[in-house]
Amino acid sequence: MSHPLMEKPNAEQVLFSASAAVVMDGRYLAPPQDKDGKIWARTSAIVQADASELYALWRDVESAPKWQEQMTSVRRIGDVTSHWVMESDGEKIEWDSEILADEPGKRIAWRSIAGDSSNAGEVIFDTAPGDRGTLVTVLQEFHLGKIANAWETIVGRNPKQSVIENLRHFKAFAETGEIPRTQGQPHGPRGIIGKMKKSLYGETITTPPAEKAS
Amino acid sequence: MKAVCWMGTGKLETLNVPDPTLLNPHDAIIKITRTAICGSDLHLYDGFIPTMEAGDILGHEFMGLIEEVGNDVTNLKRGDRVVVPFTIACGNCLFCRKKLWSACDNTNPNSHLMEAAYGYSGSGLFGYSHMMGGYAGGQAQYARVPFANVGPLKIESDLPDEKVLFLSDIFPTGYMAAENAQIQPGDTVAVWGCGPVGQFTIASAFMLGAGRVIAIDRFPERLKLARSLGAITVDYSEEDVNVLTALKDLTGGIGPDACIDAVGLEAHSTELQGVYDKVKTSLLLETDRPGVLRQAIQAVRKGGTVSIPGVYGGLLDKVPFGAAFGKGITMKMGQTNMHNYMKPLLERIEQGQIDPSYLISHRITLDEAPEMYKVWRDKKDNVTKIVIDPWAEKGSA
What we know:
The complex is a heterodimer. Chain A is of the alpha+beta class. Chain A is 25% helix and 32% strand. In chain A, strand 6 (91-103) and strand 7 form a beta hairpin. In chain B, strands 3, 5, 6, 9, 10, 17 and 18 form a 7-stranded mixed sheet that branches. Chain A: Residues 47-166 form the Coenzyme Q-binding protein COQ10 START domain. Chain A: InterPro entries: COQ10_START (IPR005031), ORF3 (IPR047137), START-like_dom_sf (IPR023393). Chain A: Belongs to the ribosome association toxin RatA family.
């Protein structure tokens, strides 16, 4: 089945078939392949915290800027809807999002419903075997097109890598109460190559604050 | 403050840079009282480690006085004297909970660089490239120490800095190498490499009950230090010496019970072809030079143990795995889980079982550091270990 490029995600496939699952009926499921202008990112982490705590942290959408890169603000506009703003170097993208599935302690699924970004996603919280905390699996879907490209330009990371980095930040925040950072450290003069490397390595992307902005 | 900055391959400068500040709630700022140059710093100097940026502050062996602590650091206060481990660990992730501190999941802000290169990421390290976290190092007057609630070891006694400084890396690293060698009382242990880590490996092997330690190197000053610890030395650069024959001769033909590779591949002589290529690239790792590892596997007795504190970075060619399998050997290795060893080893120092300062050959100022890197790299002036007093002025250290 092919999909034309579109401004709104055709998110149902993710949301109602629980595609974030890695195992189905005892079989391993490979992540969805990029095609037809859609790209997918699936990533997972073992987090030393209860599923219920992690669910609560993720579900508290207004706290997302504490751990999601480049997220300036998230405001609830209804029970299941919220307004998201990303900003970098003065450029801004905004969209509204709605939660489509909400199973406390287990799973959240969402999709954008209006605005500059076509995205959808799902997060699953499973108790890891062997008393190893919670296995958090995230699947996100982005539609390419001018808007997703703008996202990449602004964020400075491919959206797939942003999903991976954001889960890493989420885990560090949940486990330690902070997100490790090196921005703001002293150093000698970088020179041109040093500056280029910094940008190439993604170090110019501001590490999320982990705390409420004052 | 003054700091030793990497400005390019073979190019170091002692520069004035801003003082570090608290950035996270578990940070501490340390006023550094002693710091050292590590053998592995030479690989940065020589440009073997990718993802260095001009301006990076070097150094991962340091200690000092707590100047300031973040809101969430409750176990330390201003004025406390601490030794800082070179690996940074969060204390809360799965790996820290398993006491595999050097595998900490959370402390490397640039995990993606290491994942692109190696497929995994270890903990952040001080002053050791952006792939390893990009943390400013400790060859400076002050340093910011993240997760100060977990890592720094408080020194409550009045032992001088020089006796405890090496708890920051090389003493625990040498000790873990000996522990990994699974030494039983009376065992014969062979140690390749008599640099600082090899020295502490030899000392630790004796502490753990080795009956005989055979030390292999080519620098007379190092071999002399090894003999001072009680080791039998083999100078492999001598014309008639064959290491494998020597080890057979010294063990009645069976080989040492444990072989320890404290050399590595000229540690990290890995070439990484482009490190971070936004989404999918990984890098091409050039072949390591596992000469010592090959010898260690060939030399170890049947059922023996090969322990590897020496650093490897890539893909190894022609490792005699048939011999390893045939003899049924055990191999243990890895980055030091510092936090397990600092306190027990401090106790050994306090009890007078070892005085790690015996290794120091040079005491210098920060301004002299760039020149001393060169001297050590070129193996001149009988350097065994260089210690820096970051507050001394030229000529007074």
